[in-house]
Amino acid sequence: MTAGSRAARGIRRRLNAFCLCTASVLLAVSAGAARAQPLTVVAAENFYGDIARQIGGDNVSVTSILASPGQDPHLFELSASVARDVSRAGLVIENGLGYDAWMDRLVQAARPRPRRVIVVASLLRRRAGDNPHLWFDPAAMPALAHALCAGYSESDPAHAADYAQRLARFGAAMAPVAAKIASLRQKLQGAEVMATEPVFGYMIAALGMVSHDQRFQLAVMNETEASASDVAAFEDGLRSRRVRLLIVNRQASSAVADRMRSVALAAGVPVVSASETEPAGLSYQAWMLAELGAVEAALDLPKASRRLE
Question: Domain boundary at 174, 192, 209, which?
Answer without folding.
Answer: 174
